[in-house]
Amino acid sequence: MDADGSGEITLEEIDAEECALWSYFQRWCGTRFQGPKEMIQQIKVAAANVPGSIKSEELVNEVEFSEGLQICGWEGVFEYVLFSALDTTGDSLIAARDLRWLEAEVNRNRQKEAAKKQALKTQAKRAQKHQAGQMAIIDFKAHLQHQFGSLFRGWRCVLDTQGTMSVQQSDLFRACKQINWRGDCRGLWRALDHDTSGNATIEELDPHVARLLVQFQLG
Question: Residue 70 burial by CB count (10 A; 0-12/13-18/19+): exposed, middle or buried?
Fold first, then answer.
C-alpha cells in the first residue's frame, strides 16, 4: 500500500474513488455549512417531513441524512457510503461530534475566500495604478508638447539633457518641477519604468517618436 515509500498510508492509496468522494464531500460541506452543529440543524430542518425522521434535534439517522443532504443541494450521491463512514459508533446515528473535521474545512474555506478577496483587491489596485499612470503619461506628453512644440524637443531640453537616451527617477522629478507640471509624478514614473529597471527611455514615453528617431539615425 505504501507505494510511494513515504512511511504513511493514505485513503487514496487504499481506495482512490472513495477518497475522491470524501474529499469532494468535505469541500462541499465547507462551503455549505458553518460548522458541525449548524450542519445537523440544516439537515434536520430539510428532512423534517421525510418519513422515518426522528425527533431528536441533535441526531440524524440515515434517512434524514440522505434526504436532507439532497434538499440542501448535495448532488454527489453515495449518501449511504458517506453516512456509514461518519457513523463511527455504529448506532446508525450521526451527531455533531462525528463532524468535527468540518470545523477545519470551514476555516480552510474562509481563508481561501479571504485570499481570493485580497487577490481581487490587489488586482484592482494594480489596475487603478496602471490607469492613473497612463493618464499621467498622456497629460505629461501634452504638457511637454505645449511648452516645447514637440515631444522629442521637450525630452532633450529637460529630461535627457546629456543625450544618454534614458532618464532616472530623480531626473524625471526634477524635470516635472522645472516645467511646472503638477500631475502625479510617482504614477508617471511607475508607468514609464514598468520593467522596474530604474531607467526610463524615450521608447517608454512615446514608442512612435522612438521609432522615428531610430529611422533617422539609420538614415
Answer: middle
* DSSP string across 133-189: HHHHHHHHHHHHHHHHSSHHHHIIIII-TT--SEE-HHHHHHHHHHTT--S-HHHHH
Total domain count for the chain?
Answer: 2
Query: What whole-number distance in Å separates Cα of residue 38 and Cα of residue 45?
Result: 10
> How far does the chain reach from its first CA to its final CA, in angstroms?
74
pLDDT in tens, 34-88: 999 999 999 999 999 999 999 899 999 999 999 999 999 999 789 999 999 999 8
Residue ranges making up the domain that contains 75: 11-99
Last residue of a domain, one of 51, 82, 99: 99
Write out pLDDT tens, residues 137-154.
Answer: 999 999 999 999 988 899
Per-residue HEC secondary structure of 40-83 comes to HHHHHHHCCCCCCCCCCCCCEEHHHHHHHHHHHCCCCCCHHHHH
